[in-house]
């Protein structure tokens, strides 16, 4: 299905909710490995992969998604500096990670060590003097007493800041006497600071930074012709000296930005604009004020020559008229409309759903080309990766449109869940991210008018990535207990599993109960930096229930397993359902299990969805008054992030799945039953033991039924016809052979295509006709039905194009794909066709069509960066024997660059997700990734460490593959100099 194909790859490159590489540990092994890792405090991480959101839609490639993430070392490092620090490694990975000599090097930080600040900043005024090649930043901090004892410690990254002056209450401070700088901290002795609760001091600093040289894209940097900032999590310390932690919430009274008027006509900051005007020498300035207290990670300024679209929104019930404006480089202004509309929808949705209104007079969004993440929720001034903001029908797929809407929603929803109420410390990250992902998922489900479709997509992503993370060496609870580098802490677990944790509150407390909990949470904590425990208390207290048991979800890593067994007693007409749970928690978790019962004889639902509260290790639930035996539909809507298994192998298991695939009233579970049948057939094919089983019959029956489904639920139909992705399949395997897995899945796919060829073709033609008659040309509709039709037709095209054993078949397949490519105006259909064509090989006519389509696509792109990303990506994920050589040639293409994270990921990271080729037995894929990672490390350590993560899962593969991956890792570890970010990743994976 498209969402697990190339689309996910790029979504994965950008988003923490994105794809991860395959996990191949069996559940038992995985759990024990995870437990061991956890005991060693192996907090792991992943990157908010940002780089490129290119929603491709290859229906031919159901790739394994190698989503590089980071893994922390187990012991404190000696490295100095944050991600910027480049250092020469003179020791081996092993030695370096165990040294603890430096006082300023990154240390393992523990949640239990949290202490409040003795002094904090209450108010801030800043001045940015932007000059060519250097920017001067003055800040004036009002310092007040907070709690406890100690000096005032300010963060400031030594590699980024040059301190020009520092004074306290008008008096210049003397280094070594009044203050000291040690590595990345500046300490001012407490004796100089306020001694009473209501006393204040004013600290003034002036620093110089070099945005033009900042290729890391953290702090103040230049993207194309514009200046912008990225401060989460620790970028503000690359802008000025400050207590750069989320519990210091301060009011930014005045942020003045001054720059050349012609080159940077637009000057933006957080909050509302106070004034602006000309300054001598062709310069101008603007002053911004943010009345809400905020932590430094939400700070932002932008300066550039920008175009924009604007509108307004009047909040309900307050009636505040908010000016909305979305900016980009002038040439992209025509692509900003969708983001602007999505913003209005988000504002309305949050009012309708949670009673939450926007609180400033302005909401600005800026699309930036060079951005490490997907998007950032800076107060009143969101910054977006262009890939998540720009769209028009010719350049964006349906998935791009959907993704933009959900990311705009996500960042907007942070205004309450994140900004008004933020995290006390970074261990609580899931408090804002898990909750906000849950909110954006619900928003998208409402906008798509199908929560089943949305749930299928989200659960697929959770299983393909987060389960793998939780089963691997990086496993950690949604609220980790320790970390070394904050950059390494934005994981699928914190985000996606965190969203599942929030969803479980909703399932347990019901819609109204959840809303009451949210209301109380805001009532109690507005304007504060709080913890996950505070959220749990609000949920419990608002509903008058003790849900303290639920807190175990915050401290338990690994995916729990729920086993079920059942029996029907004819005499008492009672059905007994016994559930047991296993997890890494010593005490049982509180797990909501949504269940419905279907009568075995009639197929009718006799018990509608009920939420069972599994609180014990083992519990039996009784359902009485049943007139015949029933079949349970378990874990409806995926009511908890667990693995569900039948306690005893049951001869009728597949028959039951076939029954549920046909009859379940729960849309998600119908899909789920089909997926389980497909999985079983693919594994039998992989093991070569398919002959005796009836699985093929069940699969064909389910597939045939899905093909002939009535109605207009096209997306559900498309997903029902789609086999599980290689990453989801791999998650259930002990050792993964990506080449064999790719082949087995491909064989099942082809045999289904062959068996149903005429019906698939008929359906494809029927849809083509329907789509043509309901509008064509430039009229690309974005309603659920139109999107669903395209989704279904492209899944069918994928099946039709996988039949290519003979010259005739290849010719027919390529002709069909070419026809769709040529006749489509919108990117969704064009790109699907291109992806099919890109994997075609053989006769001259076939190759000629492929090359012509690629050339045409490139020419039509006409330099559009996001379309070119798609062009690079579809070639990187192509299923061709010489794909690596092609990728290597593309590295030399004039449009390729390592400095833009989107472009780099579109080719390099996308290739690592082309699992069967990246994992080619000769190890050339690993060497290539190693080389590219080494090059990128000189430019952007966040990006290089993300790329390096493509190698760290070597334990999941055969000994031979593992050894080759390790070799490539060792080469990186030995590289001098190496960034601390990448070093941390590679060395941690080389540790025993
Ligand atoms: N606050 C994050 C952005 C961020 C992520 C900053 C990682 C620093 C490190 C933002 O709200 C976010 O979560 N963005 C996601 C996309 C979102 C839709 C899940 C991202 O950038 O991947
Ligand atoms: Zn977020």
Automatic annotation (TrEMBL):
Pfam families assigned: DUF3458 (PF11940), DUF3458_C (PF17432), Peptidase_M1 (PF01433), Peptidase_M1_N (PF17900)
Coiled-coil stretches noted in the UniProt entry, renumbered to this chain: none
Keyword Signal attached: yes
Signal peptide bounds: 1-19
Segments forming domain Peptidase M1 alanyl aminopeptidase C-terminal: 654-991
Keyword terms: Aminopeptidase, Hydrolase, Metal-binding, Metalloprotease, Protease, Signal, Zinc
SUPFAM superfamilies: Leukotriene A4 hydrolase N-terminal domain (SSF63737), Metalloproteases ('zincins'), catalytic domain (SSF55486)
Domain Aminopeptidase N-like N-terminal: from-to ranges: 177-298
UniProt cofactor(s): Zn(2+)
EC number: 3.4.11.2
Segments forming domain Peptidase M1 alanyl aminopeptidase Ig-like fold: 558-645
InterPro entries listed in its UniProt record: Aminopeptidase_N-like_N (IPR045357), Aminopeptidase_N-like_N_sf (IPR042097), PepN_Ig-like_sf (IPR038438), Peptidase_M1 (IPR001930), Peptidase_M1_dom (IPR014782), Peptidase_M1_pepN (IPR012779), Peptidase_M1_pepN_C (IPR024601), Peptidase_M1_pepN_C_sf (IPR037144)
Gene Ontology BP terms: proteolysis
Domain called Peptidase M1 membrane alanine aminopeptidase: residue spans: 339-553
Tree of life domain: Eukaryota
MF-aspect GO terms: alanyl aminopeptidase activity; metallopeptidase activity; zinc ion binding
NCBIfam families xrefs: pepN_proteo
Family assignment from sequence similarity: Belongs to the peptidase M1 family.
Protein name: Aminopeptidase N
Species of provenance: Skeletonema marinoi
Classification lineage: Eukaryota, Sar, Stramenopiles, Ochrophyta, Bacillariophyta
């Amino acid at each position: 299905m498209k969402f697990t194909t190339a689309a996910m790859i790029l979504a994965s490159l950008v988003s923490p909710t994105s794809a991860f590489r395959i996990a191949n540990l069996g559940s038992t092994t995985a759990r024990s490995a995870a437990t061991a890792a956890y005991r060693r405090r192996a907090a792991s991480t992943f990157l908010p992969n940002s780089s490129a959101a290119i929603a491709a839609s290859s229906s031919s490639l159901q790739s394994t998604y190698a989503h590089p993430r980071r893994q922390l070392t187990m012991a404190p490092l000696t490295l100095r500096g944050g991600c910027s620090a480049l250092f020469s490694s003179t020791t081996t990975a092993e030695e370096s990670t165990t040294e603890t000599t430096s006082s300023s090097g990154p240390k393992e930080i523990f949640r239990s060590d949290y202490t409040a600040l003795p002094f904090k900043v209450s108010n801030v005024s800043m001045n940015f003097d932007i000059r060519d090649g250097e920017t001067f930043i003055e800040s004036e901090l009002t310092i007040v007493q907070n709690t406890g004892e100690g000096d005032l410690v300010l963060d400031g990254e030594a590699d980024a800041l040059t301190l020009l002056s520092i004074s306290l209450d008008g008096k210049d401070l003397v280094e070594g006497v009044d203050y000291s700088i040690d590595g990345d901290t500046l300490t001012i002795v407490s004796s100089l600071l306020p001694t009473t609760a209501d006393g204040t001091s004013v600290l003034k600093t002036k620093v110089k930074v070099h945005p033009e040289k900042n290729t890391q894209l953290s702090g103040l940097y230049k993207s194309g012709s514009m200046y912008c900032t990225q401060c989460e999590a620790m970028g503000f310390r690359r802008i000025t000296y400050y207590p750069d932690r989320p519990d210091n919430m301060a009011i930014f009274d005045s942020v003045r930005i001054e720059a050349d008027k012609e080159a940077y006509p637009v000057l933006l900051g957080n909050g509302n604009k106070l004034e602006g005007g000309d300054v001598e020498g062709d310069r101008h300035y603007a002053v911004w004020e943010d009345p809400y207290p905020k932590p430094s990670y939400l700070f932002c300024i932008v300066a550039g020559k920008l175009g924009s679209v604007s509108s307004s929104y009047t909040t309900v019930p307050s009636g505040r008229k908010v000016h909305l404006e979305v900016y980009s480089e002038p040439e992209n202004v025509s692509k900003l409309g969708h983001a602007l509309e999505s913003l209005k929808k988000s504002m309305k949705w949050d009012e309708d759903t949670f009673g939450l209104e926007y609180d400033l007079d302005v909401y600005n969004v800026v699309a930036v080309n060079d951005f490490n993440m997907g998007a950032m929720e800076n107060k009143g001034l969101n910054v977006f990766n262009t890939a998540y903001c720009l769209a028009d029908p010719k350049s964006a797929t349906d998935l791009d449109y959907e993704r933009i809407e959900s990311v705009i929603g996500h960042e907007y929803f942070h205004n309450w869940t994140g900004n008004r109420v933020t995290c006390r410390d970074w261990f609580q990250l899931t408090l804002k991210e898990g909750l906000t992902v849950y909110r954006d998922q619900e928003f998208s489900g409402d906008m798509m008018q199908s929560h089943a479709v949305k749930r299928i997509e989200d659960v697929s992503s959770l299983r393909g990535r987060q389960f793998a993370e939780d089963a691997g060496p990086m496993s950690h609870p949604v609220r980790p207990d320790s970390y070394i580098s904050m950059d390494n802490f934005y994981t699928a677990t914190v985000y996606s599993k965190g969203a599942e944790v929030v969803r479980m509150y909703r399932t347990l407390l019901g819609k109204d109960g959840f809303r009451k909990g949210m209301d109380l949470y805001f009532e109690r904590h507005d304007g504060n930096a709080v913890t996950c425990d505070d959220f749990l208390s609000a949920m419990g207290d608002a509903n008058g229930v003790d849900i303290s048991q639920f807190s175990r979800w915050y401290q338990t890593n690994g995916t729990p397993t729920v086993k079920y067994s059942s029996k029907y007693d004819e005499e008492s007409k009672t059905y007994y359902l016994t559930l047991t749970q296993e997890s890494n928690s010593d005490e049982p978790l509180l797990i909501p299990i949504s269940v419905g019962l279907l009568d075995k004889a009639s197929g009718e639902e006799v018990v509608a969805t009920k939420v069972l509260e599994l609180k014990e290790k083992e519990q039996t639930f009784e359902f009485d008054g049943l007139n015949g035996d029933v079949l349970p539909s378990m874990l409806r809507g995926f009511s908890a992030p667990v693995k569900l298994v039948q306690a005893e192998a049951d001869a009728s298991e597949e028959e039951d799945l076939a029954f549920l695939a046909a009859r379940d009233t729960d849309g998600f579970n119908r899909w789920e039953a089909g997926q389980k049948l497909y999985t079983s057939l693919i594994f039998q094919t992989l093991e070569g033991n398919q002959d005796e089983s009836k699985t093929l019959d069940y699969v064909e029956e389910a597939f045939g039924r899905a093909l002939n489904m009535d109605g207009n639920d096209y997306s559900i139909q498309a997903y029902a016809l789609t086999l599980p992705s290689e990453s989801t399949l791999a998650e259930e395997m002990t050792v993964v052979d990506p080449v064999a897995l790719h082949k087995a899945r491909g064989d099942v796919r082809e045999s289904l295509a062959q068996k149903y060829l005429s019906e698939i073709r008929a359906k494809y033609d029927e849809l083509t006709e329907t789509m043509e008659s309901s509008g064509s040309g430039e009229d690309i509709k974005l309603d659920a039905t139109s999107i669903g039709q395209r989704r279904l037709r492209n899944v069918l095209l994928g099946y039709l194009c996988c039949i290519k054993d003979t010259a005739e078949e290849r010719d027919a397949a390529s002709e069909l794909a070419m026809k769709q490519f040529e006749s489509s105006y919108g990117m969704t259909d064009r790109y699907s066709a291109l992806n099919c064509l890109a994997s075609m090989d053989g006769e001259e006519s076939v190759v000629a069509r492929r090359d012509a389509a690629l050339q045409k696509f490139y020419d039509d792109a006409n330099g559009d960066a996001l379309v070119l990303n798609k062009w690079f990506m579809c070639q990187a994920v192509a299923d061709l024997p010489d794909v690596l050589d092609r990728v290597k040639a593309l590295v030399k293409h004039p449009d390729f660059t390592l400095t833009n994270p989107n472009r780099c990921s579109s080719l390099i990271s996308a290739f690592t997700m082309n699992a069967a080729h990246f994992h080619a037995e000769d190890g050339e894929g690993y060497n290539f990734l190693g080389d590219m990672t080494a090059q990128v490390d000189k430019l952007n350590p966040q990006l290089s460490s993300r790329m390096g993560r493509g190698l760290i899962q070597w334990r999941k593969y055969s000994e031979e593959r593992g050894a080759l991956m390790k070799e490539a890792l060792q080469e990186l570890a030995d590289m001098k100099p190496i960034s601390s970010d990448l070093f941390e990743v590679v060395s941690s994976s080389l540790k025993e």
